Amino acid sequence: MIGSTVSELTSVITGGAGFIGSHLTESLLSQGHRVIVVDDLSTGRKNNIEGLLENPNVEYIEGSVTEAALVNEVVDRADRVYHLAAAVGVALIAKQPIQTIERNVYPTQLILDRLGERASKGKFVPCFIASTSEVYGKNPKEVWSEEDDLVFGATTKPRWSYGVSKAIDEFLGLAFYKEKQLPVVVGRFFNVVGPRQTGAYGMVLPRFVEAALRGGPLVVHDDGNQVRCFAHVDDVVRAVSDLVNKPDTAGRVYNIGSDVPVSILELAQRVVERVNPKATIEFQTYADAYDDSFEDIRRRVPDLTRIREAIGYAPTKDLDGIIDAVAKYQSSL
Ligand SMILES: NC(=O)c1ccc[n+]([C@@H]2O[C@H](COP(=O)([O-])OP(=O)(O)OC[C@H]3O[C@@H](n4cnc5c(N)ncnc54)[C@H](O)[C@@H]3O)[C@@H](O)[C@H]2O)c1
């Protein structure tokens, strides 16, 4: 930040019209950044940033970060890069593994290559890479911390391509830090939820809330005893921007999310209780929901020690408040 105030910064957000990206766009604008949003609207929606397009500090580019010329053009103007664009959603990934691998690996390489070129000319632009708790694969530990092993399933099961492709992104980012001193920070998101998230690609909370508002049934996969932790997107985007603003986070990986575990069945019951007590709950096998090869992860809980120590991270929104916020948003559509 030497020589420039926060208000002079230009941030590029890939996937900025997506769920997390649109909230990050808002957050950075409120900090006085100029923001360049690049999105191909593959899973994002222009509606997510509709209210921001009038803002003179926002530039919206509809295009794909698989295009080298576009990546070079925006990266050259950036003081910060937040790389969020990816193929997301378990349902989408199980169906389109080729796209998952290409979309998740190739753009990261393009972005880092260009940032690496700028670094070799003396301009070290901080870059955030959005990774995922999926990189822990099926590690059987109760709580996952950043130095734990990544335990993936067989390559014949396409669902692992998401976690593996994001792990390659992490390796790439860390390699550019090591070899080119590029200030890259990796954030592993654990179930981020909140307004604007769509249920269309298999995300569980928006699916449940949509079903409850319709009168049910809420479809719980398997026995519902899978455990997850849900964090509000506002808490998560604050963490992302704090991590990037803190120089000593470069070259490191951080879990980002909530560490309060809840079973999927309990989540469904809480959604019913808060959104529509008349809605029913039904169970569906993974084979029916996806295919016979689908393997899920029973428990996914982060150790947040590292991020707490780095930026004093403390989630401010609990699950009931999150469910209410999602229901309010969906009712307004
Ligand atoms: N939401 C979560 O719980 C969660 C959990 C783990 C990781 N993540 C990661 O966070 C990031 C954001 O996810 P999200 O939940 O906001 O999903 P999202 O689908 O709303 O956002 C992804 C955005 O990237 C865009 N995009 C995809 N490929 C693109 C391309 N080639 N060029 C330009 N834009 C492209 C999509 O249109 C979309 O707007 C992703 O990298 C995802 O892997 C999210």
UniProtKB/TrEMBL annotation:
The UniProt record lists the keyword Membrane: yes
Cofactor(s) needed: NAD(+)
Taxon lineage: Bacteria, Pseudomonadati, Planctomycetota, Planctomycetia, Pirellulales
Give a Gene Ontology cellular component term annotated to this protein.
cytoplasm
Where can this protein be found?
Golgi apparatus, Golgi stack membrane
GO annotation (BP), single: UDP-D-xylose biosynthetic process
- Organism, by scientific name, is Rhodopirellula maiorica SM1
InterPro entries listed in its UniProt record = NAD(P)-bd_dom, NAD(P)-bd_dom_sf, UXS-like
Q: Which domain of life is it from?
A: Bacteria
The record's annotation in Pfam families points to: GDP_Man_Dehyd
Q: What is its EC number?
A: 4.1.1.35
Instruction: Give a yes or no for keyword NAD in this entry.
Output: yes
Stated family: Belongs to the NAD(P)-dependent epimerase/dehydratase family. UDP-glucuronic acid decarboxylase subfamily.
Q: What is this protein called?
A: UDP-glucuronate decarboxylase
